[in-house]
Amino acid sequence: MAAGQGSASGTDGQDTPAPDVAHALAAADARCARAGAQLTELRRQVLGLVLESDQPLGAYALLDKLKALRPGAAPPTVYRALDFLLEQGLIHKVERLNAFVGCVEAGHDHAHGHDHHHPHQFLICRDCGTTVEISDHAVAHALEAAAQRVGFTAIQATVEIEGRCATCSAAA
Amino acid sequence: MAAGQGSASGTDGQDTPAPDVAHALAAADARCARAGAQLTELRRQVLGLVLESDQPLGAYALLDKLKALRPGAAPPTVYRALDFLLEQGLIHKVERLNAFVGCVEAGHDHAHGHDHHHPHQFLICRDCGTTVEISDHAVAHALEAAAQRVGFTAIQATVEIEGRCATCSAAA
DNA sequence: GCCCGCATCGTTATACTGTAACACACATCG
DNA sequence: CGATGTGTGTTACAGTATAACGATGCGGGC
């Protein structure tokens, strides 16, 4: 079993045995422990699959991968795990793609007390589809200010910028 | 032709409850004319339905309403119209709700030359579900700046802020 | 007039995304 | 032991969106 981490399924040229993933999983463990949440085997597997991919994965793509580890997996299997991971802030959903990515800050060890969602934004390249997560505080502040201006109390923001990444810009 | 739309009546042929809607439709006409696009009867009907609603409408809710005007309407009927209206910037999609709203700026008469998408943001209340569109330039600039900081060329941004509207905040 | 290409729309079928509902296993607690 | 709560397996279904093909109508070139 446990061979699951590295050579996923001949994805692309990049075959990362990913010590990053192992580290992120350990951080996730600590985070869940602090939050009193259980990072079960299933949830860890799903998180691992999301983290392994450098690009957003749809729920059913994830399901396909998960089936290699859990033959009986069905849609609710993966959706329940995803819901948990979203609640814990370990992954984010890219609404425009109906897909999920590991959270860039999940690996950071914050002082306890900061266990919730952090502001984040996605940059999605129209040409190559590459999706990058950033966490820009100026954007967060602008959003907060804009909301307050109309008496709205912001809790969480979905920000997804579509455009052209540096690589594709250079190519064009 | 007695396809009533519920409220307004009495006026001859035209069955438009809101003068806002009529105005917006006229503006849409002008806009499409300038863009060399055809605002056909179907598209105008769908746009009218979206504009009539003060809240986001899902494609199938829209389809149900459209069936009153066009018995044969099917999913592609409404999706094609929505695609056109999105391209023309006459409506926006709220990704988190899989729903569509009329564009707040579509009714404004801009100097020609400004026929494309404008920056916009949605405020979605968790309690009452009310969705409001704003167009905050500070947010737009912050997004642009954040993107440029990583060499990304922004073309269009989806911004949806979830939280509590003024009314629901006051109630709580 | 006639043909052709194009955009629009009708129609059927299907793919993709997400949930409801119920059953079972196990752990904790009185 | 029974009761409760969480996590998971399993079946079925709801909701969202698109593919594919046909029919119509309109404008341009012959």
**Biggest sheet descriptor of chain A:** 3 strands, antiparallel
What is the second-level CATH architecture of the largest domain in chain A? Orthogonal Bundle
Distance between the ends of chain A: 45 Å
CATH topology category name of the largest domain in chain A: Arc Repressor Mutant, subunit A
Helix content of chain A: 40-55%
Number of helices of chain A: 6
Q: Sketch the topology of chain A as an H/E string, one letter per element.
A: HHEHHEEEEHEH
Give the tally of structural domains of chain A: 2
Biggest interface, chains and residues, is: A-B, 36 and 36 residues
Report the CATH C-level class of the largest domain in chain A. Answer: Mainly Alpha
Overall pLDDT metric of chain A: 88
The residue ranges of chain A in which pLDDT falls below 50 over 5 or more consecutive positions are 1-14
What global shape of chain A is seen? globular
Would you mind describing this structure in some detail?
- The structure is a homodimer.
- The first copy, chain A, is an alpha+beta fold.
- Chain A has two domains: about 15-110, Winged helix-like DNA-binding domain superfamily/Winged helix DNA-binding domain (Arc Repressor Mutant, subunit A, Orthogonal Bundle), CATH 1.10.10; about 120-170, Ferric-uptake regulator, C-terminal dimerisarion domain (Dna Ligase, domain 1, 2-Layer Sandwich), CATH 3.30.1490.
- Chain A has helices spanning about 20-35, 40-50, 60-70, 75-85, 135-150, 165-170; strands at about 55-60, 90-95, 100, 120-125, 130-135, 155-165.
- In chain A, the strands form two sheets. In chain A, strands 1-3-2 form a three-stranded antiparallel sheet.
- Chain A is globular and about 50 Å long.
- Chain A starts with 18 loop residues before the first helix and ends with a helix.
- The interface of A and B includes residues 152, 154 and 166 of A.
- Chain A binds a DNA duplex (30 and 30 nucleotides) through helix 4.
